[in-house]
Specification:
about 525 residues, single chain, alpha+beta, disordered C terminus, 20 helices, 5-stranded antiparallel β-sheet
Length: about 525
């Protein structure tokens, strides 16, 4: 549709007045989804395709002679008309302008308009020819995506985990809402690496900077440190994946930051005296358990018991792996092994527990070894934060994103099917009808009396008139769906298109490609390639 409007506003409008050319295609354009409109330099409608009634509820003759702004909400009409006059005063194009129109019944819908000016022989602006497209559905999908983003922000808030994105070239650090909340920095504040570093606790700043620089050399960035928030401090865990160019120069990165203040406070409590530890252990709201080096539970608190549905006495002596999900056991064993042997102090992972009633519980599990005076591990302290709600929210988000992708793909498929159907109708009905009409005229011409020169001249003129119209219909059919795509493949179709372009314009165009055998015979696998062509 856009290609057709450009063709009308450009090369062909120099041969045939635009309004006559539009009316010539009246019967064809009424089947299209987009609205084709011609307006004069004052903005009044000279012509509009009949399919406007499907969108506005008004017949085309009810609109001709009026300003498009007469069908807009009053609060928008004056602004849009003023903008049009400003563009028209300098003969500028109108591109991707979004507007609101009112249906005859009063409901609103959003459209996107593109229009090109056309000029008289002396360069004076005569008017505009444009295409108006209903984008109400697209706007609805955009709102759904914004709602999806709100859900993501809510999920991050539930999980106390934010995200960030770094653009090195622009020296910009983009934070999610939850990251701003964790750091206590208002949303909208300009962020860069220096601003982030200034929020790090002074005692941890050098360590964080050193780890970041090491990450630029390929060392994984997964650290825990303190930040200053409102006169106090929090503990956060940060992880990052950096993006480097082939020469190893940093382009940007993506990462997460999790508020682990509660966990750090628990770990600190574990380092206190046995009495304080036991009190905090028994009364703590976070599920906790102490196990021997054989992974059997020595002691579990009431929160841990409630989380799994077992009594504290039932848990005593049970192996952690009796209620660990089978799919998580190997990763759990591998991660815990160096803690149990003394190679590292702690280990953390997200895993699944199976409750006594069979339900699955997702937890953020953290373990730390308690060592004796000789430095050897004596037992393992584990606390497990229930993150089932967060995991369900993430799964819902993934399903939602998958649904949006399928919807977008289906939209493209429907659009391609409609173009193909219209092309077939042009070829099978309109094209054959015009060709048959030309044959009939030729038959009639041969049978006219030679002495009736007026009838003979009229028949010849009608034949000459039909020939360019047939060519126009064929060209429109080809632009909607080039048959060469299915018959000879993509490369040959492009080469044929370039040859036709050269014949029409005199401009030499060559195709350079390494592909020589590209078939578009399978509509399911080659949909994207067809749309690009």
């Amino acid at each position: 549709m856009k290609a057709l409007s450009k063709n009308i506003a450009g090369r062909d409008s120099r041969k045939i007045p635009a309004n006559r050319l539009l009316r010539r295609f009246h019967d064809l354009l009424e089947y299209l989804d987009d609205i084709l409109v011609e307006i004069d330099r004052e903005g009044r409608v000279l012509y509009i395709t009949p399919n406007v009634e499907k969108f506005l509820g008004y017949k085309s003759e009810e609109i001709v002679g009026k300003l498009p702004t007469e069908f807009m909400p009053p609060e928008e009409a004056a602004e849009r008309y003023s903008l049009f006059l400003e563009l028209a005063s300098s003969g500028q194009k109108l591109t991707f302008m979004e507007m609101t129109y009112l249906h005859k019944e009063g409901r609103r819908f959003r459209v996107e308009a593109n229009a090109a000016p056309y000029f008289g022989s002396k360069g004076q602006l005569l008017g505009y020819i444009g295409v108006v497209r209903d984008i109400t559905g697209r706007k609805r999908m955009e709102e759904e995506l914004r709602a999806n983003q709100r859900d993501l922000n809510h999920a991050q808030a539930v999980a106390h985990t934010g995200s960030w994105r770094l653009n090195v070239r622009q020296n910009k650090l983009l934070w999610s809402n939850e990251t701003h909340r964790i750091f206590g920095i208002p949303e909208g504040t300009h962020m860069d690496y220096e601003t982030f570093l200034s929020a790090v606790h002074p005692e941890d700043r050098e360590h964080v900077d050193r780890c970041w620089k090491a990450a630029l050399d390929g060392v994984p960035y997964d650290i825990e440190h303190r930040i200053i928030v409102g006169g106090t401090f929090k503990w956060v865990r940060e992880r990052a994946e950096l993006e480097l160019d082939p020469e190893g120069v940093l382009l940007g990165g993506f990462g997460t930051v999790q508020d682990i203040t509660d966990r750090k406070q628990m770990e600190e409590a574990l380092r206190e005296s046995e009495e304080k530890f036991r009190s905090a252990f028994d009364k703590g709201a976070v599920p906790m358990a102490i196990t021997g080096l054989d992974s059997r539970i020595v002691l579990a608190n009431s929160a841990f018991s409630r989380m799994l549905g077992y009594s504290e006495s039932e848990l005593a002596g049970m192996s952690f792996y009796e209620f660990t999900h089978p799919d998580d056991i190997q990763a759990n064993l591998a991660g815990l092994a160096p803690v149990m042997t003394g190679g590292q102090d702690s280990f953390r992972m997200e895993k699944r527990y199976i409750r006594k009633d069979g339900r699955v519980v997702w937890v953020d599990m953290s373990t730390a070894s308690a060592r004796g005076s000789n430095g050897e591990p004596l037992y393992i302290v584990t606390h497990a934060q229930d993150i089932t709600d967060r995991k369900e929210a993430e799964e819902k988000l993934r399903r939602s994103e998958s649904l949006y992708r399928r919807m977008a793909l289906r939209l493209e498929q429907v659009r391609e099917e409609e173009r193909a159907a219209l092309a077939r109708e042009l070829h099978d009905e309109m094209g054959q009808l015009l060709a048959g009409l030309r044959i009939d005229l030729s038959w009639l011409r041969k049978r006219l009396p030679k002495e009736n020169k007026e009838l003979i001249e009229k028949a010849d003129a009608m034949q000459e008139y039909l020939l360019p119209l047939i060519k126009k219909v064929r060209r429109l059919y080809t632009e909607l769906r080039p048959a060469l795509l299915d018959e000879v493949g993509l490369i040959a179709a492009i080469e044929a298109h370039l040859h036709d372009f050269h014949q029409r314009t005199g401009i030499i165009a060559r195709l350079e490609t390494h592909l020589r055998h590209t078939s578009l015979g399978n509509p399911g696998e080659n949909q994207k390639a067809r749309r690009r062509v």
